[in-house]
Write a structure and sequence with these properties.
Number of helices: 4
Shape: globular
Helix content: 25-40%
Structural class: alpha+beta
Low-confidence stretches: none
Number of domains: 1
Bound molecules: zinc ion
Mean pLDDT: 97
């Protein structure tokens, strides 16, 4: 599958998550338009509002890598028994950088996965041109 590399990278990034407060370990990885794999881990802080989602860490890092995201994979425990998809803030950042056709893959810790495109998750988010 085209996205195996980012699923693997997201799984490894999940192991490196810094989640001493929630214990809800999440990892993400982006496939960039030029073929790079860029990982991100959840990072929490004792000042809880300073936590940063794994997905945004990876999305922002793709900019630092000189590229833009084409696909985003998230490996996480389930939320209310459902696969966990990116939060609204991460979807908005994904819309800005990757556009409406960016692929989003939610992967459970059991390996179950679901692949969608960003427009299905955030159909009417504000976007440039
Ligand atoms: Zn998020």
């Amino acid at each position: 599958m085209e996205y195996e590399a980012i699923i693997q990278a997201a799984s490894e990034a999940r192991e490196r998550a810094y989640a001493p407060y929630s214990g809800f370990r999440m990892g993400a990885a982006v496939l960039t338009t030029d073929g790079q794999v860029v990982a991100g881990s959840l990072v929490e802080n004792v000042s809880l509002g300073l936590a940063m989602c794994a997905e945004r860490v990876a999305l922002f890092a793709s900019v630092a890598a000189g590229a833009r995201p084409k696909a985003l994979a998230l490996v996480s425990p389930r939320t209310d028994a459902e696969l966990t998809f990116p939060c609204g803030a991460c979807l908005q950042v994904g819309l800005e950088l990757g556009g409406r056709d960016m692929v989003v893959i939610a992967v459970g810790t059991d390996g179950e996965r679901e692949q969608v495109v960003l427009r299905d998750l955030l159909p009417r988010g504000p976007r440039k041109g």
